[in-house]
């Protein structure tokens, strides 16, 4: 895991007994059971929760159809896109949100990836090198994450202040074992 100098540890969910009591009987517990414990899928008529997670293609959650609204964005950073979350909370009657970061996230040390990203934009998007560098320099500082665990915890706290009646649960998806961990 890229988590340099973690200030928080991860809690693995290997059985139902590992799910904290305050999460029992919530859609968050169901998410953990579906994904980590291979609970058989039930038929869902409407979304039970929202999931905010990174757009990384290595992560695929094991959940039933219609179980959750899923908002995917770079690094699971929803800053500037809160209306999407407001929509699912208001329109979809959602009261539970999992904020899922992941190991080996590309938004870690983003500045160190500048040359590859700029080169890719020049080759693939048809931009000039100057356009690509200006674009990168404008957005990379906003999206860069120091470490995934601290980020999802701080983002969960920030969102809880904005939406005080919603339960936000920070998690990490380890791409090494394809399991969810509580932060």
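^ Assign residues to that structure.
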């Amino acid at each position: 895991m890229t988590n340099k100098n973690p200030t928080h540890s991860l809690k693995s969910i290997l059985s139902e007994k590992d799910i904290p009591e305050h999460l029992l009987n919530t859609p968050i517990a169901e998410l953990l059971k579906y994904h980590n414990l291979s609970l058989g899928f039930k038929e869902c008529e409407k979304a039970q929760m929202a999931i905010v997670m990174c757009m990384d293609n290595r992560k695929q959650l094991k959940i039933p159809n219609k179980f959750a609204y899923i908002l995917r964005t770079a690094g699971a950073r929803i800053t500037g896109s809160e209306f999407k979350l407001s929509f699912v909370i208001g329109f979809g009657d959602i009261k539970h949100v999992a904020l899922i970061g992941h190991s080996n996230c590309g938004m870690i040390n983003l500045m160190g990836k500048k040359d590859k990203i700029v080169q890719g934009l020049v080759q693939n998007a048809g931009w000039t090198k100057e356009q690509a560098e200006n674009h990168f320099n404008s957005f990379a500082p906003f999206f860069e994450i120091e470490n995934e665990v601290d980020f999802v915890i701080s983002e969960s706290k920030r969102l809880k202040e904005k939406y005080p009646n919603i339960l936000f649960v920070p998690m990490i998806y380890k791409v090494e074992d394809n399991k969810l961990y509580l932060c």
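The chain has five helices and six strands.
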